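Reagents: none. Just compute today. DGAT1/2-independent enzyme synthesizing storage lipids isoform X6.
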Amino acid sequence: MADSGNQSCLLGSQDTVSFMVCLFRAWEEWAGLEQVEDYLSFLEYLLWVFTPLIIVFIVPFLIVILLYLSILFLHVYKRKNQLKEAYCNNLWDGARKTLAILWDGHGAIWHGYEVHGMEKIPDKGPALIVYYHGAIPIDYYYFLANVIIQKGRTCHSVADHFLFKIPGFKLLLEVFSVIHGPQEECVRALKNGHLLGISPGGVREALFSDETYPLLWGKRRGFAQVAIDSQVPVIPMFTQNVREGFRSLGTLRLFRWLYERFRLPIAPVYGGFPVKFRTFLGDPIPYDPNTTAAELAERVQQAVRSLIDRHQKIPGCILRALVERIYTKHKNN
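Predicted 3D structure written out:
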């Protein structure tokens, strides 16, 4: 009936405008746009009904966010005297301490972050800190913040070249003494009495390691040679549940191929789960003039592996790591 009506409308059109109106109506019926309009009306009704419910649930969530922001502010305010002193000494000292307090507050709120063995970090003098690299090394940022707050020191860090190519990162890297890692520059930092943090696994370990926590160091020995040339102790470090906080899809063949072929670290990372983080520092490995770089590298790798075996349940489990925020018992030290 609708088709015959449209045909009569088209045949009976007296002018161009009437003909176009009839033609549009015929096309509208043929395309089913009348049903689309019904669906849109139904969606409009659903929005009208459910918008108040959505708002009712969002507002309490916003209140929780405000409460956490308030806690973060209190973390900063609690250390206001330290901040005043830091800003009086040097502008960048004050900026570093402010950011350290903010990161420390974030770690405490979101991950219940703890450091075990901070006394092994010297109050003065150099040391090389070697750590396992998570998909996103947010645990290392928390550790750096704790070194600034508890030790009053800035730990220099070695980072991959691609970080220096990210727009806007230059100032941040300069203020926190991040270097791209030539051995000569690392040795210079240590001989000047600084702490230096490095992950031999680097981007490869970040992207391609998984919840079984393999160390992907290959035959890298440069960090060991740096320690020998600088005559400094090496302190192994590992953070429990770091792989449960963030996971990488780098184990997929495509992303592995892109990295190996073009050195593109583009494997997607997901997570941000509020799992329990505990950073463990192992006993310092002292300088020994009779130890070769290969021997020292092997010894450091075994030390980091030992920390993983002692403090991480393998394979890692996100749900278990979330429960550990409440149930605080962990593997024996």
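Residues 2-65 form one domain.
Action item: order primers for follow-up constructs.
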